[in-house]
Amino acid sequence: MSSSTVTQYGFFFDQSRCIGCQACVMACKSWNNIDAGPEKWVKIFEYEQGAFPSVRENILWVPCFHCANPVCVAAANGAMLKEPTYGIVFIDPTKATSADLRAAYDACPYGAIAFDSDASDATASKCTMCYDRISVGKLPACVESCPMRALDFGKLSDLQSTYGTSTTLQDLPSGATVQPSVVFKAKDEKKQLVTYDPSAAATLMGERINSLPPIYTDPTVLNDLSGVARSSLVIKPNSTEQLMQVTKNDDA
User: Fold this and answer.
1) Which pairing describes strands 9-14 and 89-91: parallel, antiparallel, or unpaired?
2) Which pLDDT score, from 0 to 100, does residue 252 have?
3) Which of 2, 66, 135, 221 is packed most tightly, with the most Cβ within 10 A?
């Protein structure tokens, strides 16, 4: 279906407001009756960058972005489609096979299709933009549940008029080809709110009271990132186990 025939709806995500609380993930699972585990239609990725005293936590909200040019549809051998009323990318359950949907997952830069296991015949599903809700005038469950108001939803043209036209964030794959139906606001620049001496702070953090041995004597160990499990974004994990690790909440 030509994208010119689609009245495209989409999302807005304000990274500067998101605290990674997982409310959107839980609301999505609850509304859509999805079991706890790796079958996540919405994913919250958290990862750290840098070392003391310049450390930054990154939080990314990633559902299906219902792209204007959904390469997953082209890769799915007829198992997926894009409907014209809202521009939703759907799985067609009457045509879908696990192999077709694995191919679609591989094609999608965001890994939007969710699998309940690593088995070759795993159940696959994905974000439906909460069609059953938006078709009766409600917001998607993820958007309505956000306590920080980091999310918004509506006609993509309206969102762009309100929030701008940015379709990428730091570390996210480029959306140039797929044209995701989303507007992003990047996190604020990091600011030092309290003046302090990093060297003195590093020494102090290594000390312990009551004659206990210090945690470390060489503050440069704080720059050793070899033990940091999530020091980069892994948007398309190699397994459901890794997916659960990089999206933090093992209950979601």
Assistant:
1) unpaired
2) 52
3) 66
Which residues of the chain form beta strands (DSSP E)? Answer: 9-14, 43-51, 54-62, 80-82, 89-91, 114-115, 124-125, 151-155, 182-185
The encoded tokens of residue 226 equal: 């070899």
Residue type, 174: S
Give CATH for domain 3-191+235-246: 3.30.70.20
- Tokens 């909200």 belong to 61
- pLDDT bucket at 4, cuts 50 / 70 / 90: low
Looking only at Cα atoms, what is the longest distance across the chain?
A: 73
The C-alpha angle with vertex 146 and arms to 237 and 177, in degrees rounded to 5, equals 45
Using CA atoms, how far apart are residues 207 and 227, in angstroms rounded to an integer? 21
The token pair at 250 is: 């093992």
In angstroms, the CA 155 to CA 32 distance is: 23
Partners of 216 in beta bridges: none
In tens, the pLDDT along 101-141 reads 999 999 999 999 999 999 999 999 999 999 999 999 999 99
pTM of this structure: 0.89
CA 20-237-186 angle, 5° bins: 40
Domains of the chain, by residue range, sit at 3-191+235-246
CB contact set of 131 (below 8 Å; sequence gap of 6+): 86, 88
